[in-house]
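Title: Request for sanity check on Bifunctional NAD(P)H-hydrate repair enzyme prediction

Description:
We are preparing a figure and want to confirm that the structure record we downloaded matches what your pipeline produces today. Could someone re-run it with the sequence below and paste the raw structure tokens into this thread? We only need the token string, no images.
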Amino acid sequence: MITAERMAAVDENAAALGVPRKQLMESSGNAVAAAVREAAAPGDAVALVCGRGNNGGDAFVAARFLDDYDPPIHLLGRPETISTDIARENWAALERAEYDTRVVRDSRDFDLGDPDVVVDAMLGTGVTGALREPERSAAAEINGTDATVIAVDVPSGVDADTGEAAGVAVDADRVVTFHDDKPGLDSLDATVTVADIGIPETAELFAGPGDRRLLSRPSDAHKGAFGEVLIVGGGPYTGAPALSAQAAMRAGADLVRVACPRAVAREVQSFEEGLILRPFDGDHLTTDHLDHVHALAADHDTVVFGPGLGDDAATLTAVRDFLADYDGRAVIDADALQVVPEVETEATLLCTPHQGELRAMGGPSADDWRDRLDAVSDFAAELGHTLLVKGAYDVISDGTDARANRTGNPGMTVGGTGDVLAGIAGALLATQDPLDAGTLAAYANGLAGDRIVDRQGYGLLASDLLPEVPRALWGGYDE
Ligand SMILES: NC(=O)C1=CN([C@@H]2O[C@H](COP(=O)(O)OP(=O)(O)OC[C@H]3O[C@@H](n4cnc5c(N)ncnc54)[C@H](O)[C@@H]3O)[C@@H](O)[C@H]2O)[C@H](O)CC1
Ligand SMILES: [K+]
């Protein structure tokens, strides 16, 4: 099952891999034509009813595979208003090649005739709200015929994610959908077939530029557009919490605060004047500080636990006790990771171990990233938390789905890059689900590092990543 939003992301990832949408459209159109040939007897009348988006474009392609039927191709609207280049190019090809194209300027112009098979290519995943004219009248006319109705991707007017229609929708007999089943098709009274349109498996598996689409989606589940992040770290180390906090700020968090021992607070502050500190007494975290940390955590959307905390026994006990009483969202990094397998918690955790830390957590080791994908997925299911296992290919799994990321380079083995990653993950976890937050954080952190190495060669510092994070997350690079 794939949602329309995820489909758009995978599509963009496929294009970045060198399989552009026009190529996918050729496969889609071919699959639609095959379904028509299956439904139509020789000599049957076939009609294609097309909208001005890519759903219509799929049918323009199908027409070229249906020469035997010489179908009329009804375009609802003027050709100049076709909304995408690839659909327009396919329409132009039909006109130049003298297909039976018919432009419907007004719903009164629409004459469907009496076809045996109708292809509904008015609207696909691009539908918003109830069908407008002339699609509305055309849908009613299609529903009024005895013809076998084959819908392209989704019956026009139906929301592919929910199966609901805001008004009149096409009542299809068959649906030819692309790449994967859509959640909204299950409830329909139609035969659904899924056509493989040649999207590489890795367009879905590997993080890519399409994954960034999630960030343009406003989330109303949390207050503030991007959320507030609390970093709990520092003590034996001071740079780590400062890096995580700055990374969370660069990743768009509305507000970032750092809870660290008072003994190192001035030093942590000195890395960046914009950091807001909420220090606790002493020089390392202990259970004495848990009231303070809990009160702070309750005021934030996510907590990043671990950067520079150290592995003092009292600190690890404090992390364990904190998690046992916490039911919010947290990124767990560095020394804090080792307590995760022992703790019963209601919290939603995104754990960011490298492979050594994963083994220390009792997790699997596998050399090949594909093997690691399965092993990490099993271990995430066992833990009940999401894992982002860092490596040349990062592997991310919530125990159900698994993804990989291959941005990043050997220059990033330098200290502190993991703290930056944890900070980005903390900011993203405020608005995204843990699998998406982990995937996107790994992608952006690695991409930032790749751009720096492209520009200046190796010799990268973790702090170099910080100013690159916004562009890595929101685009602006030529992929
Ligand atoms: N990887 C893939 O999944 C591929 C899918 N393909 C096909 O592309 C469509 C989605 O195309 P898109 O251009 O995004 O949207 P639509 O064609 O569905 O619609 C856009 C079009 O419709 C107008 N519009 C929106 N809402 C309404 C409404 N309520 N009433 C009337 N008109 C409306 C809007 O203004 C636009 O003009 C997908 O379903 C597949 O069929 C690709 O071909 C291959 C890859
Ligand atoms: K359709």
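Thanks, this matches our download. The radius of gyration is 27 Å.
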